Automatic annotation (TrEMBL):
Keywords: ATP-binding, Kinase, Nucleotide-binding, Serine/threonine-protein kinase, Transferase
InterPro entries: Kinase-like_dom_sf, Prot_kinase_dom, Protein_kinase_ATP_BS, Ser-Thr/Tyr_kinase_cat_dom, Ser/Thr_kinase_AS
Molecular functions (GO terms): ATP binding; protein serine/threonine kinase activity
Entry superkingdom: Eukaryota
Organism: Musa troglodytarum
SMART domains with a match to the protein in the record: S_TKc
Name of the protein in question: PTI1-like tyrosine-protein kinase
């Protein structure tokens, strides 16, 4: 699998001024650098875990804080998720989407580096370790719901090509220092070819479905959305653009 074209510093298309040299949006990290930033992926640095692997807090030499997602076990499927997440996150910049800092691929190690989100996931506040702190008042909840919707709307309508996330849930909405929502985890996302539309617009999930998924309470809704052809693995919206 050739990831060569992915592994060069990227520049997102957002916020570029003509004639001005923009700072690289993301870069390649060495494994050594990430070992040192995370104290050798120390258990005490662990922020969370998902299907792909564990996520660790780290600090770079310049003092900036990062989150590093480390692949659990190498497989072709995991390699695909890794490539998809980088391919897609590198294209987008929006205040309600998690920012990609870079990646690392050495041997069978696959790591993705993001900005650290100090208030962790929405799930941890609704049903997890942070729930007892009752930090989410109604004002914050509204702004998280609206922010998540704005991030998703940007992916659907403004990213080029359009993107569908396909894994919206409370553990994939992170919260920054101001409790602003940042949609994360693009491992299942798909790029939608230009001009492609859903054959049955009435089958598209409405915002209320999305809010139920964000609350993490509606298993039935999730099942019905999984039956929706838009969310089926094989469609015209393939992994185009990946160098594999
Ligand atoms: N940038 C981050 N800052 C803080 N915590 C994070 C960050 N990224 C991920 N996490 C934590 O790790 C968990 C798993 O991350 P995620 O990207 O969803 O991985 P997976 O692809 O394995 O599901 C999240 O639910 C969250 O608790
Ligand atoms: Mg996840």
């Amino acid at each position: 699998m050739a990831f060569g074209s992915l592994f060069c510093c990227g520049r997102s298309s957002e916020g570029r001024e003509p004639g001005k040299k923009a700072a690289p949006a993301w870069r390649v990290f060495s494994l050594k650098e990430l070992h040192s930033a995370t104290n050798n992926f120390n258990y005490d640095n662990k922020l969370g875990e998902g299907g792909f692997g564990s996520v660790y807090w780290g600090q770079l030499w310049d003092g900036s804080q990062i989150a590093v997602k480390r692949l659990k076990t190498w497989s072709t499927k995991a390699e695909m998720e890794f490539a998809v997440e980088i391919e897609i996150l590198a294209r987008v910049r929006h205040p309600n989407l998690l920012t990609l800092r870079g990646c690392c691929a050495e041997g069978k190690e696959r790591l993705i580096v993001y900005d650290y989100m100090p208030n962790l996931s929405l799930l941890s506040h609704l049903h997890g370790q942070q729930a007892a702190g009752c930090l989410l008042d109604w004002g914050r909840r509204m702004s998280i719901a609206i922010g998540s919707a704005e991030g998703i709307a940007y992916l659907h309508h403004h990213a080029t090509p359009h993107i569908i996330h396909r894994d919206i849930k409370a553990s994939n909405v992170l919260l920054d220092s101001e409790f602003q929502a940042r949609v994360a985890d693009f491992g299942f996302a798909k790029l939608i070819p230009d001009g492609a539309t859903h054959s049955k617009p009435e089958k598209r999930p409405i915002m209320l479905d999305v809010v139920d998924l964000l609350k993490g309470v509606s298993k039935e809704k999730l099942l019905s959305l999984e039956d929706n052809e838009l969310f089926k693995p094989e469609s015209t919206a393939g992994y185009q653009g990946l160098s594999m």
